[in-house]
Design goal:
By secondary structure, the protein is of the alpha/beta class. It is built from eleven helices and ten strands.
């Protein structure tokens, strides 16, 4: 059911930032082209690629498993975030999807809409023998008052929310150390846990140290974007990432 996970491990290349952040925030002359990302996923030996509907329609080549993000939002609207469905599960399957992704902004005043929508999407995905992956990002509401979205208790709560809503895998932020992240992994139960790659770090070792902690904590792997395709040598970084995930190298 999860062709992008091998022996419990996975490295996904994610590229939904154009919609979520806008091209001026993350892209340069090279990575603004989705074809470059598709080529990087193939040459870098990634377990899968995460595209939205438009990129999947125009650039997916079938050479690595595809996960289609079926909801999204822009970065222009003020207030608590709401990300609604923009692609049907049926359409995602027609594009070659092997998994369905959906972002939930836990803590947002619009959370109930996303909970309900993900519940329906998860059921549709399972009826078609596809796994449903929940990006669970605590935002808005009382999140900052309770410690922020990287607070260990909040990270573990995010993992639990995804599992309780039926996600086969959850994508969450790193809590900062293996011990607290292990609690998040345990909180996710049988759902696979992926670390969110986040913004480009200052050094490779900084990012790889986080990934080492994630794997030590018992996670499945990560869904990474900017720390690969913003890198001056994306394939070199991809190799280092795979060494940590699949070969057990620790930084």
């Amino acid at each position: 059911m999860k062709p992008f996970i091998k022996d419990g491990k996975s490295a996904l290349l994610a590229y939904d930032q154009g919609l979520e952040h806008g091209p001026s925030a993350d892209f340069d002359d090279r990575n603004v082209d989705p074809q470059f990302i598709m080529d990087t996923a193939v040459a870098g030996g990634f377990s899968g690629i995460v595209f939205g509907k438009g990129c999947a329609e125009k650039y997916y080549n079938g050479k690595v498993p595809l996960i289609v993000k079926v909801n999204g939002k822009d970065n222009l609207t003020a207030g608590d975030p709401l990300s609604r469905q923009v692609c049907s599960v049926e359409e995602a399957i027609s594009l070659g999807a092997k998994g369905i992704g959906y972002t939930i902004y836990a803590g947002s005043e619009h959370e109930p809409h996303m909970f309900q929508e993900f519940g329906r999407i998860q059921e549709e995905a399972h009826k078609n023998d596809l796994p449903a992956i929940a990006w669970v990002y605590p935002r808005g509401g009382r999140v900052q008052e309770l410690g922020g979205d990287m607070d260990p208790a909040i990270v573990a709560y995010a993992a639990r929310i995804g599992m309780e809503l039926g996600a086969d895998a959850v994508k969450i932020k790193y809590s900062g150390d293996p011990k607290t992240f292990n609690w998040a992994v345990r909180s996710a139960g049988k759902a696979h846990v992926f670390m969110s790659g986040g913004a480009k770090t200052k050094t490779d070792d900084e990012f790889l140290k986080q990934l080492s902690g994630v794997m030590e904590a018992g996670a499945t792997g990560l869904a990474v974007g900017r720390n690969v395709w913003q890198h001056s040598e994306p394939l070199v970084m991809a190799k280092k990432i795979k060494e940590v995930i699949f070969e057990g190298k620790r930084v």
